[in-house]
Amino acid sequence: MTLRSYVVGRVLLTIPMIVLLFTFVFLILRLLPGDPVLLHFEKPPDPATIELYRHQLGLDKPLYQQYIDYLIGIFHGDFGKSMTGDFEPVSYQIQARFPATLELTIYSMIFAVVVGVFLGVRSAKTYGSLQDNTIRIFGTITYAIPVFFLGMILQFIFAIWLGVLPPLGRFDIGQAPPHVTGLYTIDSILAGDLYSFVTAVRYLILPTITLGTVLCGIFIRLTRTNMLETLKLDFVDAAKARGLSDNAITYRYALKNAFLPILTMIGLQFAALLAGAVLTEITFSWEGLGSFLFEKISQRDYTAIQGTVVFFGILVTMVTLVLDLLYAYLDPRIRF
Amino acid sequence: MVIVIIAIAGVGIWYATQMPAQAKDTLIMGTTDSVEVNLDNARSYDYFGWEIITALSSGLVEIKPGSSAGPNDIQPALAESWEQSSDGLTWTFTLRQGVTFDGARPFNASVVKYTFDRNCNLTGNGLWEPDGPQLNIGYDSIISSVEVVSTYVVAFHLKMKFAPFLQLMSCAASYMVDPKYAPMDQLVNYKSGDARASHPLGLGPYILTNWTRTGSHDSEMRLEANPYYWNKDAGLPKTKTIIIKMFSDSTALGTAISSGQIDIAYRQLTAAQVNSFKNNAKLRVWEGIGAQIQYMCFQQRIAPFNNTEVRRAIAAALNRTHVTETVFLNMASPLYSIIPAGMAYHKDSFKIYGDANYSYTQTTLAKYGYTSSHKLVVDLWYESSGHYPESAKQAAVYKSDLEASGVIEVNLHSAEWGTYAANRRAGTMAVYIYGWYPDYIDADNYAFLPFASWINMGYNSTYPAGGVQQYNLWMQGRSAATDAARQDAYYQLQDLQAQECSVIPLWQSQTTAVTSTSVHGVVLDITVNWRHWLLYWGAPATTGP
User: Fold this and answer.
1) What DSSP character marks residue A36?
2) For B380-434, what is each residue's pLDDT tens digit?
């Protein structure tokens, strides 16, 4: 199989996956008990009013028609209208909240990979030592620790006890930087405002460490295992015989060889990252898509829940696809 | 990890020293509230929406801060004076002169007429929003027409004598709109990036300069002092800028106030949080009476709850203090009337049964064959999705108290709000807990609850005889010509409600706010109005309520 046919096959495989996801989410939400229309009213509305609301929300149509409308809407980038409040388009809501989640996930993933890989390498290099065992225990604990619990501990230490970092939010209240991308670190750089940049970073530190720490455990274990295997290979001995420095062998050659499974894991962990982001965002009042989903679940806003879950699904599918293609490019064996 | 922690601490300390001191003309308030639908007082029907409306607009009259909202507690606002006609069917208001929206466009009688014509016509009239305060309070059953008598005199012609009319005029639904931003035929909804175009209001102590909202949930609001406020000479508002930050839950709100990220935390901290903050020297806990009540309802189409004596026996077995102490940690008070304590005309009529009066319960139920070996079975329902506070814990306490009588067995059932409301409409719940939050601050807005048709208990203004009697006394109270006559009607009504026990009052909320010790001007009274314009920053005060 050529790289081209692999790419085509992999992309085609993505389509039924996404359609299955759409269908599953659509059906599950409609099977849940409770009438979203009646939630609008404190006192019982008359039947005509209920029908009016049903019509406005498209709930008076047969299920198959709702499903077709829903699919057509998605392919036009329209996730429907929110069922609560002022009936905003869900796509607008996703657009407004996604940059915060993106910023948090990017920095958390960087933190998780950098810390996880570094500690994994250290652990492999000091195999059987106290340092190795300490890192392994650390990796196990961080893998198991609930994200909200770690977040609350860090909040207590750094925000309430020491008072050196802000406990909640993305920026000083009432002073958000001018909106360009919605990623405050980028926006403050674009505005050339160092103070805003430092502020944005300060607010990012605790949630990033929280989410990144929980995710880094898996990278520690994976890196350690792969490095232990790689360090036993002949080319490492050959490099040593040629007098290359220990760091050059470890980071320039051995780690490069051990990195492919880590790349795959980044893709797999992306879904876990988004799941973790929901809890992290709630813990830190981080106004992203995760906390948005939480709000909408509590409000039983079916359209918004559906739109957000589908958006997350598409995102995870796309990231996985890109990483698979990257993997295939880096390692030709994967195509056959 | 240690290096990371040290680095974080270093950056934090450096940064903390660089942070500009917070200006004293800005207060930051945190809340878990959010505007439910919009800030159009033709539609807004939630606590927080009304809180903001009262900051952005003004009414003809106001209730004196700290009062019991009685007939002598009304003070002038946009109206300087008023009088009621001898037949009680016309209220005439003389308006304050020289008031403007923006330094140019004047406030006058036409604005008052425009406001009421618009708001009453916009809702419940076949338009998209068949909801809203005017519809639910029934303005159209009270007000016949609004007449511009002269530039600064406006008359309200009523369809019926309505004694609490001034209280109705003081509620947010009766506050003025600015005709420039309030189309006669359209509600005003949130518009992203344009705070001014997101509401129809004007003439209040503040103007809204920023409102960030996504997914029908607010993130932040910014209130700036209105330079044209009619009461500016009185030094109001006391703080130039108030920023309101919305938090997702009480945990986040508590973290924000304890870390100093916000100056004020108002709605909703848990009782445990509030109690813990009482020991924090940097914070001040403000406590006041609340207007939210809860009560137990009986579906009288389900026997034996159609029996008045059975209902009385249940009333006697309840122990209100138990629930307020254990569930609400004393952040709520036992309630012995459907009209809350602290409000004019309140009377503790249900005290005739006492609390945990098991001998009364046993004796009364024995008449109907209920004994320790053949217990009265009560299927008690409660709401489970957070519509009411601590519902599950409350229900557990009620169960324990009723069963302590030895002759009652309680089966607990729960449903989330949508199902709970549907069950209520279908009349399938035998005994259930319900709550009420007032529209306008007056006994009139509570006294009808034991026979409200929409609660659908099978007990209303037409059936049974006790319901009819209650309805007549209620009408007598709302149409009374004098304060003494009103009081007499409401006292009789409360006594009758205690006899009938169609609903049993359980508890009344308390209102709490937690602030920095440097924040002053918090007033928590029976109106439960949060008066932003009275808040100010000053010398630290002693911690404590």
Assistant:
1) T
2) 999 987 788 889 999 999 999 999 999 999 999 999 887 898 899 899 999 999 9
Query: How many A/B residue pairs have CB atoms within 8 Å?
Result: 143
Cis peptide before B205 (omega within 30 of 0): no
Q: Tell me whether B117 touches chain A (CB under 8 Å).
A: no
Supply the ipTM of this predicted assembly: 0.75
Report the alpha-carbon distance of residue B118 to residue B112 in Å, rounded. Answer: 10
Strands (E), chain A: none
The whole-angstrom distance between B176's CA and the closest CA on chain A is 22
Residue A131: C-alpha distances to residues A221, A251, B259 (Å) = 14, 19, 36
| Mutation site, A86, A110, A161, A170, interface B, largest B CB count within 10 A | A86
Strand, coil or helix: what is B154? strand
How far apart are the CA of A7 and the nearest CA of chain B, in angstroms? Answer: 37
Residues of A in contact with B26 (CB under 8 A): 174
Dump pLDDT digits (tens) for A173-209: 988 888 889 999 999 999 999 999 999 999 999 999 9
- B335, B346, B506: which is closest to B431 by C-alpha? B506
Chain-centroid distance of CA A117 in Å reads: 19
Single pTM value for the model: 0.84
- Range A44-70 average pLDDT: 78
Number of CB atoms found within 10 A of residue A254's CB:
24
If you count them, how many residues does chain B have?
Answer: 545
Q: Do A165 and B8 touch (CB under 8 A)?
A: yes
Give dist(CA B119, CA A209) in Å, integer. 51
The answer to whether the peptide bond before residue A36 is cis (omega within 30 degrees of 0) is no
Phi, psi of B145 (to 5 degrees): -160, 160
| pLDDT tens for each residue of B480-490 | 999 999 999 99
Confirm or reject contact between B136 and chain A (CB < 8 A): yes
Contact A174 B421 (CB under 8 A): no
Q: What is the pairing mode between strands B264-266 and B26-31?
A: parallel
Query: Do residues A116 and A204 touch, judged by C-beta distance below 8 A?
Result: no
- In the numeric block, which tokens belong to residue B466? 């006790």
Burial of B111 (0-12, 13-18, 19+ CB in 10 A): buried
